[in-house]
Amino acid sequence: MLSEIGERRIIEELKKFLDIGDDAAYIRFGYKYLILTTDMIYQETHILKQMTWEQIGMLIVTVNLSDIAAMGAKPVAFLLGYGSPDISFDNFKTLIKAVKKQCERFDTKFVGGDTNQTEKLTLSGTLIGISEKPVLRSNARVGDIVAITGDLGSASLGTRILMKDGVNKKKLKNPVFKKALEPEPRVKEGLILSKYVNSMTDISDGLSISIRDIAESSNVGIEIELDKIPIDDRTFNLAIENGEDIMKHALYGEGDYELLFTINKKNFEIIRNILSVYKIGRVTKNKEIAGVDSKGVRFRIERGGYEHFKSKHQKEKA
Amino acid sequence: MLSEIGERRIIEELKKFLDIGDDAAYIRFGYKYLILTTDMIYQETHILKQMTWEQIGMLIVTVNLSDIAAMGAKPVAFLLGYGSPDISFDNFKTLIKAVKKQCERFDTKFVGGDTNQTEKLTLSGTLIGISEKPVLRSNARVGDIVAITGDLGSASLGTRILMKDGVNKKKLKNPVFKKALEPEPRVKEGLILSKYVNSMTDISDGLSISIRDIAESSNVGIEIELDKIPIDDRTFNLAIENGEDIMKHALYGEGDYELLFTINKKNFEIIRNILSVYKIGRVTKNKEIAGVDSKGVRFRIERGGYEHFKSKHQKEKA
């Protein structure tokens, strides 16, 4: 059964049949590349009860934009596969309007869709982008700086708290929750970074998985300095208030749509003057995925992160 | 509620937000057009109990290929959004292999996918094609011949019988059922026709809907000669055996992935020597959608066809 296999291996199996695969696929088209990605969100798995119809509409565009951003590509066109139970026409229109608006914010045409009646809300988005030179995960070089475009842990922490209790609406204004409900894709940043970085991916499935993806596909190791991982003060405080381990959320939590990239030192000096980016580690020759804490103690960073199609037991083991 | 509105109006509403729309969307890309389409299939609505995992895999590619064919475009790349309950890994692989194989048969790369755990099998496909001059629905001209690429009614009749009773496996070899379980997209035909026709669409939602789509978007009328509608002998006989009105299936049934097109007389003479095509009517100046029976009696062809999000009552009225 699929639950005995886990989503990662299912995706690995799926990839065997794919002609190409990274954060998104790329196919040559004249002197450029088409960048193609598809991402699905499902009521039970991805949609918090506190999300508005507008936020749901934004999210299905965002998750796909993030994959295009991770390739350093420019998004061009979006298509939506829409399935839902019999909701009100107004809610449907609110969701579709939000899809359109989120596309427009990132200069993307909303060009096609299909609708179906399904028992649970199921949205499948596809984004087509364009790039002259897509950035892959597989070109990290020994000596590269490992860096990230923003602070971590807030989306995962926010999601955790929202799932535990029905936080009242007033509280929702805390920007930590906004990151869980309205994550922003790093499209502009990805386009700028594409000219300077060696490898890149988004960290929507969690930092630890993304580090491993880059290291394994580039055949290198990565060492992360834990106290360099940027965590916003408000996130830090909210974690303490709720008895949550913020470092776990930062390393293994999902939902932060930041970009993780590796870059040589010279280029890092250039881009740190253009964008707010955080150095969190370096690419090493040995193939370990390691963390170093503030006392200099090294440890192995486990894969972790969220996988669908896994029983609770397996998730804890992972 | 969406059920009070009906899928057609929902799609109309959705289209207001779309930047472009026909059977598929088209966006300029240098000196060519990218053709983009997305189509979803859902366990309860589209998947017959008698379908094998292989046939389900083929179907999600076929429904999308048919939209690309209807634009007269060449399919290039396919992406799959996959959602299912916890099925066996072998069944999953069989389905994915069939997706890959159906892509290869039509020279299409299978480039991307996403997997999710959902309660019901839900597949969302996206196809990217390419065309130098996409064929729209909206260019039918008064005096054009209205023609179709194959015989009608078999997929709809086969589906009806399969849904009524669990036809035994031996019976399934009847080619009428094969058309319901393994429809073929008219990709090759669409590409050839694109050089000769004025307007084109696929008839996956039923002939009567497609006729109306062409007539309304071209601002013309269409007159169909009922006894010119091609119906295969085996389909005709199976209908009689099962007490079904085959003309209803041919006019209003869905699932026949043939192409409906309008073309001038000179070009029709050319393509009838290249492809097997059937003249079924003509484009008229008055804006009626009319049928003429063998006795010369004219009548209005209702919209009909299948719509999701509609109550039984409304479907009967429609």
Write the layout of secondary structure elements.
2 copies of one chain form a homodimer.
Chain A: H1 2-5, H2 7-17, E1 25-29, E2 32-42, H3 43-46, H4 53-70, E3 74-84, H5 89-105, E4 109-117, E5 122-131, E6 145-148, H6 154-164, H7 175-181, H8 187-193, E7 199-202, H9 207-218, E8 221-225, H10 233-241, H11 246-252, E9 259-263, H12 265-271, E10 278-284, E11 289-292, E12 298-300, H13 312-317
Parallel strand pairs in A: 3-4, 8-11
Antiparallel strand pairs in A: 1-2, 2-5, 3-5, 6-9, 6-10, 7-9, 8-10, 11-12
Helix pairs in contact in A: 4-5, 4-8, 6-7
Question: How much beta of chain A, percentage-wise?
Answer: 15-25%
The fourth-level CATH homologous superfamily of the largest domain in chain A is PurM-like C-terminal domain
Q: Regions of chain A with pLDDT < 50 over 5+ consecutive residues? A: 310-318
N-C termini distance of chain A: 18 Å
* Succession of helices and strands of chain A: HHEEHHEHEEEHHHEHEHHEHEEEH
Number of helices in the DSSP assignment of chain A: 13
CATH fold name of the largest domain in chain A, please? Phosphoribosyl-aminoimidazole Synthetase, Chain A, domain 2
Fraction of residues in helix of chain A: 25-40%
Mean pLDDT of chain A: 89
Strand order of the largest sheet of chain A: 7-9-6-10-8-11-12
Please give the oligomerization state of what you see. homodimer
By helix and strand content of chain A, what is the structural category? alpha+beta
The major β-sheet of chain A equals: 7 strands, mixed
Largest interface: A-B, 65 and 65 residues
Overall structural domain count of chain A: 2
| Shape category of chain A | globular
Q: CATH top level of the largest domain in chain A?
A: Alpha Beta
Evaluate the radius of gyration of chain A. Answer: 19 Å
Let me know the number of strands of chain A: 12
- CATH architecture grouping of the largest domain in chain A: Alpha-Beta Complex
